[in-house]
Amino acid sequence: MEQDNKKLITILVPAYNEEEVLELLYERLKNLMDENINYNFEVLLVNDGSKDKTLQIMQELRIKDKRISYLNLSRNFGKEIAMIAGLDYCKGDAVVIIDADLQDPPELIPEMIKYWEEGYDDIYAKRKTREGETWLKKFTSKMYYKILQTFTKIEIQKDTGDFRLLDRRCVEALKSMRENQRYTKGLFSLIGYNKKEILYDRDPRAAGQTKWNYGKLINLSIDGITSFTTTPLRWAAIIGVIISIIGFIYMLYIIIKTLVTGIDVPGYASMMVVILFLGGIQLIFLGIIGEYLGRAFNESKHRPLYFIERYNEKKETNENLNK
Ligand code: UDP
Ligand code: MG
Asked: Within this chain, do residues 192 and 118 fall inside the same structural domain, yes or no?
């Protein structure tokens, strides 16, 4: 297949406990690959340490169809890391990242390819609707984008997931950023290049359970903010200065008042309020500093981002580990 000069498109699918949908996904992708004969396709399934039969299904699919490749991570690393592992191993001239649960319709891929041929490098799919998601999830996601956007200078695309087509040069750019606590959604914006938005309706999950919970979401949000901006640290300093100025003015007022009217003992309540309030603010800012310090500590260890157990039939020896 490789000897012809058709372009190769990799479809990268991170999957964690997706035994219920993989075959359905394969059917949809197979249709797509068979219909678009002007391109060669590679489907790279990344098994992110699933505890169910996901890996077996991937192996069976590869036996059936050699366009399928799979990468088995040594344990569950989370979707962000599963994606960079996939980017490291994909061969395509362009890569489409897509969720395993068919929430992102593969039928959109030909449109993405069309724009890619027109010269766009990063064609991302923006959700028009979010069916099958609770209002709470929609609301929190909306608030989150708002907060993130006020903190960061680079523009984060709203209502956009990881479903997108990336040109090879975007892939290389993403691969060059080896941070451990990855926030890929921000990295997509950070790399720049010619971006093109297409709209779609997000379907409900085809089967299986969402792997997200609010704990994970909160962590990802904090990662999103702390990996892209140090604005919170600056806010801490600014608020500190403002409070000091207020405190100084209040101090002058008390000194003058004491000189004029003598010492006035009551004032326990107001003192307690000020102590508790300032104590709280100090703890919050210590926490923020700690958050950044912790990130610096983690990144300074330069550990590999992931370990590969197996790439297709080949057992990985980890001799040439990722940087
Ligand atoms: N996923 C993964 N590792 C994880 C969690 C999720 O590779 O630790 C994959 C999952 O299999 C799916 C995609 O990431 O293909 C999105 O996950 P999910 O559908 O659970 O998230 P949601 O769509 O609810 O945001
Ligand atoms: Mg999903």
From this structure: yes
